[in-house]
Amino acid sequence: MDETGGRRVLVAGATGYVGKFVVREFKARGYWVRALTRSEERLRARGPFTAPAIGVDDVDEVFVGELTKPATLAGVMDGIDIVFSSVGISRQRDRLTFEQVDHQCNKTLIDLATAADVQLFEYVSLQGASDAALADLAITRAHEAVVAELRASGLEHRIIRPCGYFSDMGALLTMARRGRVFLVGDGSNRMSPIHGRDLATICVDAVERSSVEVVAGGPEVMTQREAAELAFAVVGKRVKITVVSMRVARGLVRVLRRLSKQIGDLAEFIVVAGEVDGVGPPLGTTTLRTYFERLAAGDPDA
Fold first, then answer.
1. Are the C-beta atoms of 100 and 141 separated by less than 8 Å?
2. Orientation angle between helical segments 224-235 and 288-296, nearest 10 degrees
3. Taking the CB of the first residue and of the last residue of the chain, which one, N or C, has fewer CB atoms within 10 A?
4. Alpha helices in the chain (DSSP H)
5. 87 is a domain residue
6. Structural domain of residue 58, as residue ranges?
7. What does each C-alpha distance from 74 to 33, 65, 182, 202 come to in angstroms?
8. Would you say residue 1 has pLDDT above 70?
9. What phi and psi values does residue 279 have, to the nearest 5 degrees?
10. Domain for residue 189, yes or no?
């Protein structure tokens, strides 16, 4: 323990939707927090769909380094008791693959944590990895490779499996505002996405408890079409939904993969996610309607 009264935590993925909330939750609970980021400017700025800015009071130390460049990470584990990682590709920008980021970057963290005798490593994977439709996707293989690395490492660990994020649902509200929502598939797949703030609470709770794996859903189950209709209701517009058939969507994935394997892999995940259920225990408390209403009103803390 140190003068803050909490163990020392390294948060990797601190500029992402989940990571920003997790930084603030650890700090609010009395942990000493080091945020690992490639860009302090991005850490300090608000993220999309109400991911919070990290102010000077939200973190004890900012460590600027790149997991794809291990030479920049010297000292990142110094004094650290707990490593939290939500490192992964959410939106393709750097033309890196899921294997390079979701797996290899987290493997680097695991190796550094093992060498530093870190007490516990917590990793955010995905729900439904054993589903036949998802199991062979590049993103699933990468996530589960990290889970396997953790199990083999000897580190005490926690695996968090969220059932989708409200940040993804925010895209529905954006489309509804423009007057039309596009859905991949008929929209009948069931889901229970969760707010990043609720997920952060679950992540820190898991560090303090003994469950090795936690599947985390939001407080309600709905179909993708119902979520789209809710978005229209909140913005006060007539429902206009265009369905992109699976045949057309898969054809588009093949075209994109010819142009870029990285973008093709991400598109394939989006397409497959449009036809499988993603439902878990209702651990979150924030409803999607509440989130949409606050987002529509411009509430920065939606």
1. no
2. 40
3. N
4. 17-28, 40-44, 98, 106-115, 132-135, 138-153, 166-178, 196-207, 224-235, 246-259, 261-273, 288-296
5. yes
6. 8-165+194-217+280-285
7. 17, 9, 45, 30
8. no
9. -125, 135
10. no
pLDDT tens-digit readout, 27-68:
999 999 999 999 999 999 998 778 899 999 999 999 999 999
117: left (phi over 0), alpha (psi -120 to 50) or beta: left
Task: Tell me the HSE value of 2 on the side-chain side, using a 13 A CA sphere.
Answer: 12
* Count of beta carbons in the 10 Å neighbourhood of residue 241: 17
CATH of the domain at 154: 3.40.50.720
Q: How far is CA 151 from CA 122, 125, 206, 209, in A?
A: 12, 14, 17, 18
The answer for residues whose C-beta is within 8 angstroms of residue 73's C-beta and 6 or more apart is 65, 66, 67, 108, 112
Rg for the chain, CA atoms, rounded: 19
Torsion of CA 15, 16, 22, 25, to 10 degrees: 70
Q: How buried is residue 76: exposed, middle or buried, by Cβ count under 10 Å (0-12/13-18/19+)?
A: buried
Higher pLDDT: 247 or 261? It is: 247
Burial of 119 (0-12, 13-18, 19+ CB in 10 A): middle
Please tell me the predicted confidence (pLDDT) of residue 290: 96
| C-alpha span between 231 and 243 (Å, rounded) | 16
Question: How far apart are the C-alpha atoms of 56 and 298, rounded to whole Å?
Answer: 24
pLDDT confidence bin for 232, thresholds 50/70/90? very high
Look-up of token digits 């083999």: 152
Angle formed by the axes of helices 17-28 and 196-207, nearest 10°: 50
Number of domains in the chain: 1
**Residues with Cβ within 8 Å of residue 189, at least 6 apart in sequence:** 223, 224, 273, 274, 275, 276, 277, 278
* Cα→Cα distances 96→15, 73, 120, 189, Å: 17, 19, 28, 29
Is residue 31 included in any domain, yes or no?
yes
Mean pLDDT value across the chain: 92
Any domain includes 81? yes
Please state the φ and ψ torsions of residue 194, each to the nearest 5 degrees: -130, 145
